[in-house]
Amino acid sequence: MRVGFIGLGSQGGPMARRIAAAGHPLVLWARRPQMLEPFADCGATVADSPAALAAASDLVCLCVVGDADVEQVVGGPEGVLSGLAPGGVIAVHSTVHPDTCLALAETAATRGVHVVDAPVSGGGQAAAEGRLLVMAGGESGVVQRCRPVFDAYAGHVLHLGSTGAGQVAKLLNNLLFTAHLAAAASAFTLGEELGVDRARLGEVLTNGTANSFALSAIAPMNGSLEVLAAHAGDLLRKDVGLVGDLVGRAGAARGAVVEAAEAALTLMSAHR
What we know:
Keywords: NAD, Oxidoreductase. Residues 2-161 form the 6-phosphogluconate dehydrogenase NADP-binding domain. By secondary structure, the protein is α/β, with parallel strands linked by helices. The protein has helices at 12-21, 50-55, 67-74, 80-83, 98-109, 124-128, 140-150, 165-193, 198-206, 213-218, 226-250, 255-269; strands at 3-6, 26-29, 45-46, 59-62, 89-92, 114-117, 120-121, 132-137, 154-161. 51% of the residues lie in helices and 14% in strands. The strands form 2 sheets. It has a 6-stranded parallel beta sheet, with helices on both faces. α8 crosses α12 (255-269). The mean pLDDT is 97.
């Protein structure tokens, strides 16, 4: 497939490189031209607009930050939808509200274009090593068409159902990760109050049954959320807020996991 890629950040950049390395013709576009400079050696071509990128693509992958970014690069006379031919596919790798993907899919369908919501988990290092988790929602046949591209950077591609299902799963993943942060940070604080050195406790917890991805992320900082808050606090706050909206609309129980995630956000707010 000819692939267009928009969103060359810490995770999207390695994904784009993996696509090119797998032999797929790759077209790039970025709002800031300097973001394209590191990719001069990967054989990709550069488009002067999202529409031009889409016109040269069968599949357009979006790895931008949030809902507004997705809507901006897709819509308008210079947006992806204006250039993508019927039968083309937009894969939304960004973590956004499921309703954003549903609305995009409805609009795209009027032009004969398919939408797959395909948020990813694992981070930049996992992307570079080709072991991301892709959580896909959309028509089964369309997801299968995209698999050769997804497999370039993914260790697991899971099809979870109709459009929006991938986003729901990713938001729940990030909710639980945030809740784990609260539990882990609290354990370090409690250990200190009980006379256990934070660094030594980190060695114990990361090598014991209590270990988790979240715990491993903050153990090098002796359980402090300060560094994580600076780098990911706003994104986690966005995702927990999206889950809160989904819970409210569905009339579902908030549960302990939502409360724990909100506790983590409160702890991170102290470092803003």
